[in-house]
Structure formats: C-alpha cells, structure tokens
Amino acid sequence: MKKLLASTAVVLALALPVLAQDYTPDANAKPGGTITITYKDDVATLDPAIGYDWQNWSMIKSLFDGLMDYVPGTTTLRPGLAESYEISPDGLVYTFKLRAGVKFHNGREMTAEDVKYSLDRVTNPETQSPGAGFFGSIAGFENAGPGGLSGVEVVDPLTVKITLSRPDATFLHVMALNFASVVPKEAVDEAGADFGKKPVGTGAYKLAEWTLGQRLVFEKNADYWRPGVPFLDSIVFEVGQEPVVALLRLQNGEVDVPGDGIPPAKFTEVMSDPAQAERVVIGGQLHTGYITLNVGIAPFDKVEVRKAINMAINKDRIVQIINGRAVPATQPLPPSMPGYTEGYAGYAYDPEGAKALLAEAGLADGFETELYVMNTDPNPRIAQAIQQDLAAIGITATIQNLASANVIEAGGAGTAPMIWSGGMGWIADFPDPSNFYGPILGCAGAAPGGWNWSKFCDEGLDAKAVAADSMFDPTKSAERLAAWSDVYMGVMEQAPWVPVFNEERYTMKSERMGGEDALYVDPVSIPVNYDYVWVKQ
Amino acid sequence: MAAYLLRRLIQSALILLGVSFITFFLLYVLPADPVRQIAGRSATAETVENIREQLGLDKPFIVQYARYLGALVQGDMGRSYLQKTEVAELIQSRLPATLLLMAGAIFCELVLGLTMGIVAALWRGKALDQTLMVTSFVTVSAPQFVVSLLLLYIFAVKLGWFPIGGYGTFAHLVLPAVTLGILGSGWYSRMMRSSMVDVLRADYIRTARAKGLTRARIVLRHALPNAILPVIAMIGIDIGVFMGGIVVVESVFGWPGIGQLAWQAIQRVDIPIIMGVTLVSAFAIVLGNLLADLVAPLIDPRIRLR
Amino acid sequence: MTDLSAVETPPLGALARLTQRKTALVGLVIIALVVSGAVFAPWVAPFDPNDQMFDGLTLEGAPMPPDGKFWMGTDLLGRDLFSRLLYGAQTSLIIGVVANGLALLIGTLVGITAGFFRGWIGGILMRFTDLMMAFPALLLAICLAAIFEPSLWIVALVIALVNWVQTARVIYTETSSLATRDFIAAERTLGASTSRILFRHILPHLLPTIIVWGTLGISTTVLLEATLSFLGIGVQPPTASWGNIIFENQTYFQSAPWLVFIPGAAIILLALAFNLVGDALRDVLDPTQRGRD
C-alpha cells in the first residue's frame, strides 16, 4: 500500500506516466490449454454494472477492464486502461490518459467517449446497478440520469477528466471496481437488457458460449492489450454443481479449480492426505465475520452490555468448529487491510468479567434476546456456539434461522437485536479501510433498510471518517491510515459489533495448474485470477 | 366427454389464476424487499425509491397484479430482477432437462415399484414380502443427498460406468433417474402391493384360476390392469413432487433443472422467476391430474367422468 | 397362491392372525420405547442434548465416533448424539404422528367425500386439492416464517395443511372406483344408509391405502420438518429433531456416518413399527376383511 502511494506521489509532482511496480508473469508459463472451473450457483449476469456476486466477480474482471487495476495476487493498485493519471492539487480533478490502440472484443478501438458512456451508464438509475453508490463522489452524481454525469468530461479521444464534488482518497480504488469497467455503447445498445448475456469488453478473455444453467466458455482474446497474457486458450465454467461433487471431480482429474472451495465435509479428508493437501492453497481474505448488537434495542443500548458480549464469545472455539479455517478477529478490519491496528488485543475472552459488566449494567440475572442467522452451513452451527457462550453469562438467545433475504430485511428494518453476519458478511469491495465503515458502521447505513444492522451512529466518528477520506494527498497516506485506525478504535470503544473471525480462503487446484499460489487466492479477483494462471501440459 | 373436458379446462385455467393470485400475494406480503437486493449495499434511499418506481413496486398490490397478468396474457413473464434475463428464456433453457428427468424418474419408479409391489403381493407374508416392505421404508426415509452421492460415488467415481454428473447424453440421465426412482419406489411398491392383494382375492381371479390359466397370465392380464388404478393417481402426484422439490438431486448430478432455478430465486426474492416457475409447475401439475382423471375410466370402465 | 386360500381355510387364517399379533406386539414395543425415550429423555439422556462439550470435538473440530463415553458419537458441535436423539424424538413424534395423522385424516375425508358423493361438492373439493398441489408450499413456509414466531406447532400445522393433498388424491381415485362397484350398488338397492355403506364397505377397502400413506408419511414428514425448520418456521437450533440431525449432517455422511445413519435408522424403525401395528389394527377393526393386506 505504501509503495503504491509513493509512486502516485511521483505522478503528482511530475505528471509522468505511472510506473507503479508491475507484475512479472511466471517465467515458466506456457500458453495454451483449457481449464474447467465449477460453481454451485448459476452465473447471474456478466454485465459489469450489475454483477455483484461470488461467481461473476472474477469472471467479469477477465472480460472487462477499468481505468485502474490491481497487481495480480495483491491489493496494490496499478493502471489499467489508463496509461497515466494526474490529480489536481485540491484533489478534486482526476485526469486520465488512456492507452492507445486498446480494442474491444468487437474490434473497435476504445476511446474516452466509452469511458464517459460507461460511467454515465452505471450511475444512471435506469441501469439499476448495485454499485452506483460507489460513484457518489463524482460531481453531478445526485442528478445522474439519462443525461449523464456532469463531472465526467471527454477532453480528447484519449483523455478523460473526472471532477469530484469532494476529495475522495478511495477514488482510484473505485475506478478499479468492476462497476467502473469500460463498455462499448453500440454493443450495449444492440443487446439491450441482454448485455449481461452478450458481454463485450476489452478484457483478456471473451465470452464464446453460454448455455444457460449449464456452462460458459471463455476464449482467449488474441488482441489483448497487455502483452503476453492471458496464457490459457479457454476456460470452461460449469455451474449447478454441488461442491462435494466438484471436489470428487477434481480428485478424478475432471475439474481444475472448485470455485466454491473445499466443502467443510471434505476438509479433514483432503488435509490429511499429503498428495491432496499440497495442492491446497491458503490465503487471507478481506473478510470479517461479526455479530451486530442493535444499539436501538434495549439492553444493547448500554455499552456495558455490548462490551460484556464481546468478552463472552469464545472465538477460538468458533474457529475450531470451522476446522480452523479462520483467525480470531479483534477489530472490524481484517489483518491484511491497510489501517488495521497492530497490537490491539480487542476484548479478551473472559466470561467472569462479562458477568461482572452485566451486573454493573443492572442485568446480573441476564436477559432474553434473539440472534438472527442465515440458514446455510456453517452459520447455524456458529450461531449455536455463540448461543452457548451467551448462556454462560446468563443471556438466553433464541436463534432465528432464516433465508438470507429475511435476515437482511430484519437487519435493515432494525428489528433484529443480534445478527451473525456469516454468509452475508462483508468481503471488501476494494482494499481500503473506508470500505468497512460507511454502509455498515456509519450513520448513512443506519437509516431504515440500510446495511448498518447495529443501527450504530456516532456523528463524531462519521466526521473523522469523512476527514480521513478527504486526505487524498498520497504523501499523507500514513496519516490517513492512522486516522482510520482511530475511527475503528472508536468503534471498538463503543462495541456495536463483536468481531469474531477473519476467514481464510482454502482452495484447491488440479496438478496441472501453474502460476504462483497468490493467483488462486487473489484478494481482488476472487477466486482465481484467470489472466495469469496457466496449465503445465 | 367433450363437455367434461371443456369444463375441466376452464376449471384448470381458474386454478392457475388462483395459484398466480395467491403466490403474487404471498410475495407481496413477504417481509423481504427485492429492491434492496437489486440496489446493493451502498445504495442511497433515493436510488432505492427510484428502482422501486421503475419496477412498479410502489404501486398498490392489485395494480401490480393486474400488470403482471396483463403482461402474462401477452406471453411476457417479465425479466428477472437480479439476472435481468427474460424469465421465459430462463425457464425454457431448463424445462427440457426437468421434463426429461421427470420422465426417466417416473419410469424407474414404475419399474422398481411395480415389480416390488407385485412380487410382495404374490409372496405375501413371506420373508421376501417382509424384506421388500423394509426396503420400501428405507428408500422412503433415505435422505436424497446421501443416496445421490453414494450412487454417484460408486457408479461414476469408483466404477466409472457413468459420467460424474452433467447433462446431455443418455448416460448422464441414468444415475439421477435411478436415484429418484429408488427414492420414490417405496410409495409405488406399497400402493401396488396393497392394491394387488385386493384384486388377487376377487372372484374373477379365482374364476381365472379355476379355468387353469397360468399364474403369469393371471397376474399380468387380469390382476395388473385392475390393480394399477391407484398407481395412476400416484403419477399425477409425482409430477407435483418433481416440479417442486428435486433441488438436491439436481445439484448433486449437476442437472440443469428448474428446481435449482426456483431455489436460488426464492432465496433472493427474485419475484418474476418465482412467479414464472410456480406457474409453469402449476400448469404441469394441473395437466397431470387432469390426465390421471381422464385415464382412470379407461382402466376402470366403471368410473364415469362427470 | 396359497395366500388366496387363506381366507377359506380357518386354521391358516388363525395362524396368520397370531403372527400378526406378534408383529403388532413388536411394533407396539418399539413405539412404546420411542415414546418413553421422548418423555423420559431428561432422566435417560446421559448428557444435556445442547451441551457443546469440549471433549466432544477433536482439536481439528471433527466430531467423535461412537465410544465408551459417547455411545452414538458426537455431532459437529461436540454434542452427544444419543442424548439428542432422545430429545429429538419429542419433536419427531409430534410431527410424524400428530401432524402426519392430521394430514391423513383431512386427506381421507376430502378424498372420500369427493369420490363418493361426486357432483359439484366433489368437483369443488378436487379442484381445491389441485390448487393446493400446484401451490408452492415452500413459499408459504417462508412467508409464515417471516410472520410468525417459529414453533413446533406452526411447522406441524403447515405439514398437516400441505400433506393432506396427496392422500386426498389417491383416496379420491379409489373411492370413485369403489363407489361404482356391484356390491355397493347392491347395498344401495337393499336400502342401506349412506353412512352404513361408507363405514361398512368403502372405508374398510380404503384401509390398506390409508395405512400405506400414513406409515410412509411418518418418514417423509419427519424429514420435511427439517426442511421447513431450515426455512425458519419450525423448531430452531439448538432444539434437536431426527430430521434436523440428518439434515445438518448429511454432507458429512462419509467422514461421520453415525450422524446420518443412526437417526435415519430411528426414523425407519418408527415408521415400520407403525406399519406393523396398523396392519394388525386393521384386522381387529374389520374381521370380515381378515387375510387381506
């Protein structure tokens, strides 16, 4: 992170092309070959303005490009379709210089007009993009509509100027989101609402075949603008496959990467067989599993109660239940996230201390409450472990085991006293500390229907968060991260959450797969960075 | 007959209308907001309201329902909220797989169930009968997931006789169809047995025996046609079961059926898909029951259609 | 074909009756065991069914196989399976016997009424049955889950409301056929009352079907309860039921087979026991039909 910001500093000062440290693909990599990836759930859409789930996130990354991108296997920004960029001294104007000669899959050259069209499109309410909110700092966002965004201007065919309404230190990350992918207008117009099934982008692969509900085939884009990649000739995605069966097929040599990872039921079997265990790839995720404590519902309005619950949860046991595939969490941010507060121990497991705190709050006899949880394994199990921990300090929690849509509704409406976030939890959209605050801990998300299920709203912390995000100047990055660290420490002080664990990603690959492990647990291109992996035969 | 058929068809249309109304109403009162799912986590209140307006979800219930019906009459089932794909296209892509698996599964159920039922009836009270009875209870009680995966493991992974899931060829169909056949055979075998035992003690069977006809001839030519009546009703019921609940078998065998589509849509409150799948399966169920009622008098001429 | 002569030769019939009583006894004993296990669970169970014991899991978080301490092993949270089975019997008996019995009763009544009287009442009843069958029960369950507090009684009610349909359909078809048979017509011309025909002639002929549906229904409703509870309308964790023990653990059937096969065997045994008793009961209720299954 620091390295990146240092390099952008150079840009600021000299306005030279960005020379951020780039990625050197595996020297042994050979082009060619086809791999097979499986998923349980169907692929919903490949429209970059719409797609927002586990399956299509990395697929869209391979079909499309945005102005910014990440160094494969890391959370470090690098330029994408932009060759360089300049930030004005007040941090409000970003001028992107585009790469020349980049071609869409339909053969046409990409220009600044396409960039403007794409940003106009994603923010137009008619597109119904779940990612529109990320572009809130662009000037004219409030009036976005068929007329487009007033803050995005085409200067010349290879230059685009974006004006913000407020400084936004995360803006370059936003430009690297799938939602900011550049799409050709004529292809969108032609496909209409079916663009998600007939995607046309500038990415390393293009869609060759899609049999609904069965399989998709991606084909190498021979004209890809990054030299030397991708390596694979094609990728086959098979959907509707039970993870256990996907693993059996992997063991049988029919599948190269099980998109849903190693199913819990097979985990011990795989890990105890050295031949299989060596093909398991482990990586951190920008993920935190937490319990929300609704500050609007008594007795969670008392900070002692919230702290007591933080002390009552035996996180080590919960990690054991999920076969050790996580690390206990101390704070909202995961350890691999910039801004994580090193050395902060959080609330230690201390049932006796918790009881004492409850007594202090006048609840020595405990109380009754409800814990909402999404009904897919292992979440009900984790909820039951939490329930037992609460019972130990006298709190009787009834479990409400529901489909995700019902839990999300109860959380948004503020009717759920406690929610275990698992299955619906927060995997960061982009690697920046601000991404864990706004919608889930800030005042904006606490409104009815919002994703801040604690309904926690501290205007002082909100102001600090806004101040931190205004520190766009890369030379102040350390200061900014420190400010964010303070915000999260402020959150922990008031304990609206119990951060329980940070999940680790365990995935597996077939023997013939090449490329470094980081590509298989890419923190951004989840679950696989398709552009850089290769096959050995 | 024609009048009966006409009346039944009109009734069927009314049933479908009723199903559509109740389902639409349930989705309307369901406390889960589809707009929230569409708008995403970072959406502002204005965005949410804007989307709600675009989808017409801000309108009163009856207006929403009337609009849906109006479009449906013109053959438009709408677009999925989350996938943005035409619901008709989504269903069309999966319906053949569902119908194929249903046909295969019912065939297996009939072969297994009727054979076991007839054999049990003929050897009534013997060890064979008792073994088959226990078998039927085991198959009915067995969890779908376990049976599917066991068969897949043995016959596809270990023996390699069939592909490990997928869709396309006859070989792909065998395992899921046999799995469903085994799981459902218990109902058929128990029904067949009790019906067969009843028929075997009827006067005309005794007459046939007295006439010295062979046992096989008696069973197949005289007893079976009379005993099979309840089984016909079972097939009608089975259609309902298959249209609604074979998600587990579909996902173990990677079979692109309608069940997985419906299950995902229900989890995510994708109303147009839920409505579409419900109506299509309701249509199949109503049709299946109508056929069962039409076939019954052909098998048992004493039943009259009224 | 010796079976056929059973009706005519009294000694064989008596023998058959005897064995049937013996099997009925076996059935009754099993049912009594399950019921007393459920009722006396707090005294019989070796452990608290919801206690997630530290030594109930390996360090890697895997469940313990059956051993001296945990007779039937532990589940994925380190709870004693035997204790959970005992407590789970309470839920599963209510679902498998009460809810399923209620569904059977409704289905039989609707089916007989529609099949025997036919006419517009029958038409309406059967079209209503079609409507219920075509209706997405899972969706109804999700709606109820969101509206009501989850409870065992709601899930029992949903099962009763959803499951009568198939029974009604089958009973209807059989009754329509029976109603037109010669012996019924003969009874009518002899001036037998409707209730006499229904109870003396129609119902006994339907008993085998009712028994088949009632006993197989035990298995399916106990499993259905788990699905419905999963959607949030039934018993919520940590309350055990035989269905949810299987449901929660079925993906682990290779690494921890006891978690699936033991509760599965319990369900099969219970359904079989009711089948044995049902068969014998039918003979007792209707001596004229002795020898018929």
Overview of this protein structure:
The complex is a heterotrimer of chains A (537), B (306) and C (293). In chain A, helix 9 (303-312) packs antiparallel against helix 11. Helix content of chain A is 28%, strand content 20%. Chain A has helices spanning 2-14, 54-63, 112-123, 171-174, 185-191, 243-251, 264-271, 274-277, 303-312, 315-321, 351-360, 379-392, 404-413, 438-441, 459-470, 477-494, and strands at 34-39, 68-70, 77-79, 82-87, 93-98, 152-156, 159-163, 205-211, 215-220, 234-239, 257-258, 280-284, 287-293, 326-328, 368-374, 396-402, 418-420, 426-427, 497-508, 513-514, 534-535. Chain A has 16 helices and 21 strands. By secondary structure, chain B is mainly alpha-helical. Chain B has two domains: 13-73, no CATH class; 94-299, MetI-like (MetI-like fold, Orthogonal Bundle). Chain B has 14 helices and no strands. Chain B has helices spanning 2-29, 34-39, 45-54, 61-73, 87-122, 127-141, 144-158, 170-200, 203-210, 215-227, 229-244, 247-252, 258-267, 271-299. Chain B is globular. Chain B starts with a helix and ends in a 7-residue tail after the last helix. The mean pLDDT of chain B is 87. With 293 residues, chain C is mostly helical. Chain C has a domain at 81-275: Orthogonal Bundle (MetI-like fold), CATH 1.10.3720.10. Chain C has helices spanning 2-5, 10-39, 41-44, 81-117, 119-134, 137-147, 152-179, 182-189, 194-230, 242-249, 258-285. In chain C, helix 4 packs antiparallel against helix 5 (119-134), helix 4 packs antiparallel against helix 9 and helix 10 (242-249) runs antiparallel to helix 11. The radius of gyration of chain C is 22 Å and the shape is elongated. The relative contact order of chain C is 0.15. Classes of the chains: A alpha+beta (537), B mainly alpha (306), C mainly alpha (293). Chains in contact: A-B, A-C, B-C. At the B-C interface, helix 1, helix 6, helix 7, helix 8 and helix 9 of B face helix 5, helix 6, helix 7, helix 9 and helix 11 of C.
